[in-house]
Amino acid sequence: MAVPLDTVSQDSKENVAALGRPAAAMPPEKHLNMPTQSLRRWSASEERKPVLQHPKLGTWLARLFVFGGGLLLTAYGTWEMYQVVSVSRTTALQWVLVGLFTVNFSWIAVAFTSALLGFFALLRRPGHRGPLPSTLQHKTAIVMPVYNEQTDRTFAALEAIYESVHATGLGDSFDYFILSDTTQPDAWIAEERAFLALRERLGPGARFYYRHRQKNHHRKAGNIADFVSRWGGHYEHMLVLDADSLMTGECIVRLAAAMEADPDAGIIQSLPLIINRNTLFARLQQYAARVTGPVIAMGLAVWMGRDGNYWGHNAIIRTKAFAAHGGLPDLKGKPPFGGHILSHDFVEAALLRRAGWSVYMLADLQGSYEESPPSLIDLSARDRRWCQGNLQHMRVVTAKGLKLPTRQHFATGIMSYLASPFWLFQLIVGIALVLQTTYIRPEYFARDFRLYPIWPRFDPERALTLFAVTMGILLAPKVFGLILMLIRGRDRRASGGGIRLIISSTIEMILSALLAPILMLIQSGSVFQIMLGRDTGWQPQRRDDGSIPFKDIVRRHRAHTVLGALAGISAFMIATSLFLWMSPTIIGLLLAIPLSWLSGQLGAGLALKRLGLLMTPEEHQPPAIATRANELQARNVAFGFDDADSLRAIYEDPDLRERHIEMLPATPPRKRGIIETERALAEAKLVDAETIEDAVSWLHNKERMVVLHDRALIDLLVNLKPKPAEAQAAE
Hints:
This protein is α/β, with parallel strands linked by helices. The chain contains 29 helices and ten strands. It has a seven-stranded mixed sheet with strand order 3-2-1-4-8-6-9, sandwiched between helices. The longest helix is centred in the middle third of the chain and has 36 residues. It is globular. Pfam families: Glyco_trans_2_3 (PF13632). Pathway: Glycan metabolism; osmoregulated periplasmic glucan (OPG) biosynthesis. It is a multi-pass membrane protein. Belongs to the glycosyltransferase 2 family. OpgH subfamily.
C-alpha cells in the first residue's frame, strides 16, 4: 500500500536501512491526473481567476516601447531602403529586395529595442535580493532528466546541488530525482551504480531517487510527464534541471520561496549563465552569455511580464498546475511537422498561461548555470533539433485561447530560424540586381513606348548610411552589455580590467561576424531539410571539450567553402564594390573549415584564457558550487562506472544484480504468438554462449537492453562460465 512521504519518518528510514533492507529506488506513487490538452478547443470559462491583483501598466508601457520603437525603426529602415533603390523607376526585383530587407530589419529592430529596455532596467535595479527565507512551507522535487549522459558529470552536479541546498538549512524541503531515458546499456548500468554509490555515501536522509524508463515515449517531455503523473502528488513544486545544469542552494531556495509567495505563479524561470567552458567556441558563447545575455534577458523579462516563457530547465514549476494543463498533444501527421512536440517547453508555458497561471523570469537571480556545446558542429547538431521544434510551432501558434504575447513568443522562435533563409535570399537578390545592372542591356524600346529605359539604379550614399545604421542596431546589445560590465567595478576587475574587456568584446564581435554566414547556411539548410520532410531525431549532446576529427570538419564545411569561393569570384567579376560589400560573408565562408577547427580547439580557448581575454567573473573566481562539482566529478571518474561493460558488471557483482532486478518494472505478460525479434535473438545467443566473454562479444546494444530488462535472461547470463572449459582445466 502506498503511503504519503510525509508519514515516513526519518527514524523509520534509518531502521529500514539498519535491518539490511535498502530503501526503494523510488518513493510510493501518488498520482496526479495529467490530461492531454486540446489545441482546437478552449473556453474562456476554463481560465482560472488570479488570487492577487498584479500591476499591468508597466508591462504594457514596456511593450509599447519595444514594439512601437521596433515598428518606427522598421518604418525608417524600409523608407531608407526604398530611397536607395528608387533613384529611377523601381523594378520588381528591387521591390523583392525591399520586402526581404523589411522582414530582416524588423527582426533586429525589435531585438534592439528589447535590449535597450533591458539595459535601462539593469542600470536601475540593485543586484541584492535580501536575506534568504528561514522556512519553506512545501516540498519541492528537484528532477534531472538524463539521456545517455556521463554519470561522472551528472551525478557530481546533483551531489553538489544537494550539498549547497543542505548548507542553507532548508534541505528537508527538497527531494532529488534522476529520471533516466537512457537507451545505451552501459550508460544505464553506470547510472544505477552511480545512484547506489551516491545513496550509500549520503545515507537515507538525503532522499535521492532513481527511475529508468524502458521506452522513452515522447522523450524529455514524456519523461517529466511520467514523473508528474505517477509521483507528482507528493510535491507542491518541481524544479527541472538539464543534464548540464548547476544551481546554488540559495538560487533554488529563492525560487521555491518566490513560488510560495505568489499563488498565481505557474512557472518561474531563472537565467542560467554558461560556465566551465574551455574551447574557443565555447568560451565565445560563455563570454557573450555573460556580457550580452543579461541585457537581452532583462529586456525580455520586463516586457513579457507575467506572460513569459519557459526554457525547459533551471526553472521551478507548480506541479498540480503543470499536471492539469501541461499535457502535450501529438500533432497530426508525421515528423518533422507532426508527431510529438520537440520544443515542448514553449508549448507547456503557453498552455499554463492559457489556463490563467503566470509564467515569468527572475532575470537578476544569481546562482543558475549551464554549459554549452564545445564546437560549431556540436552547436549545429543541437540547433537542428531546435529548428525543427520551433518550426513545429507553426502548427501551435494558432491554437485556441492562447494569449497574444504567447503567440508572439512562438512567432519569435519561428522567425529565429526563418531569418537565416531570408538573409540568404536577400543576398541572392542583391547579387542578381548588381548582375542585372552590370550585364543586362536596358530595353530601350519597350512595348508600352516609354521614353526612357527601365534599369535598376541605387543611391550609394544612402546605402552606406543604411548599412551603418543596420550594423549599429545589430551590435548595440553587445555594446550595452560591455558598458554595464565597464561601469560595474567588481565585474570589470573580475573580467581582466577595462582594456581586456574591450579587447575581448572586439574579438567576440569579429569572430561572431565571421561565424554568422556559416551559421546562416547551416540554419538555412536545416529549414530546407525540414520543409522537405526530413526528421532530425534526438541524439544525446556532446558536453566534453574533446575536439572533432579534422576530416569530419572538412566534410561538414566543404560545401560552405565552395559557396564562399563561388560567391567571391562571381562578386569580383561583377563589380569590385559588390565584392567589398559582401566581403564579411565571403571571408567567413572561405574560412569555414579553419574557423570551425580553431573554434573547437581546447588550446586556442586556453591560450586566450591565459592572456585574460574572453574572461568572465565566474571564470576568474569560479562559483563555489562549480568548484565542488568539478572536484566530485574527478572523484567519480576514478570509480570507473562510465567505462565498465554493463553485462560484466551485472555478472560479477551480485549486490548490483540484486538491486538492478529490484528496480526493474513489472514485466507485462507476453501475448501468445507474438515474438519480439531482439528478445528471441538475445535468448538464442545466451543459450549458445558458454562464457560471459561470448555474451559480451555477441550481444548488440538493443539485445543487451532486452537482457538487462528481463529477469529470465539475466539468470541465463549469470549461469555462464567466467572462462572457457579449457582455460579452467589448465588452471
